[in-house]
Write a structure and sequence with these properties.
The chain is α/β, with parallel strands linked by helices. The protein has a single domain, classed as YbaK/aminoacyl-tRNA synthetase-associated domain (YbaK protein, Alpha-Beta Complex), CATH 3.90.960. Helix content is 27%, strand content 24%. The chain has five helices and eight strands; from the N terminus they run αβαββαβαβββαβ. Strands 1, 2, 3, 4, 5, 6, 7 and 8 form an eight-stranded mixed beta sheet that branches. Strand 2 and strand 3 (62-69) form a beta hairpin. The chain is globular, with a radius of gyration of 14 Å.
């Protein structure tokens, strides 16, 4: 395990956000990449659905996030309807993701963003305990429970967003 990854500034920001939320989770530095849900599941030896994908979308000039189980896709119509967006959100490009979340694609965590982002959480994530989410770097994740993920992010639970 590469402990020096834990000292990188984006990873330290995620740990600080976890601590501030009272989450008690520690960040895990992986030998393999966690850039994709499949990569993370392989590196952790867990089921694909136990990986929380932090998907960032653009709605006008606002960022919105869907936290979706690794074995599911995000239904953009449901995301729009449940967050009350004016039109269908579009996948955000790398520059927009970095600007709005403070993190690069492949390591975007569900918390620790510079400003509040509306978050919709896929209920199907609750099938697994623990679950693993990105932690600021493509080789870093943290372990949490579904209940703690919802609490720490203040996200809205959806039974339909993950399809």
């Amino acid at each position: 395990m590469n402990e020096s990854l834990l000292n990188r500034e984006p990873v330290r920001r995620v740990q600080a956000a976890l601590d501030a939320a009272g989450a008690g989770a520690g960040i895990i530095a992986l030998e393999g990449t966690a850039r994709t849900a499949q990569d993370a599941a392989d590196a952790l030896g867990c089921k694909l659905g136990a990986i929380v994908k932090s998907l960032v979308f653009r709605s006008g000039d606002e960022a919105v996030m869907a936290l979706v189980a690794g074995d599911r896709q995000c239904d953009l119509k449901v995301l729009r309807d449940e967050l009350g967006l004016p039109d269908k959100p579009k996948r955000a490009d790398a520059d927009f993701v970095r600007e709005k979340t403070g993190f690069s694609i492949g390591g975007v965590p569900p918390l620790g963003h510079p400003a509040r982002i509306s978050i919709l959480i896929d209920q199907s994530i609750s099938r697994f305990d623990p679950v693993f989410a990105a932690a600021g770097h493509p080789h870093c994740v943290y372990s949490t429970s579904f209940k703690e993920l919802v609490r720490a992010t203040s996200g809205k639970i959806s039974e339909k967003v993950g399809c």
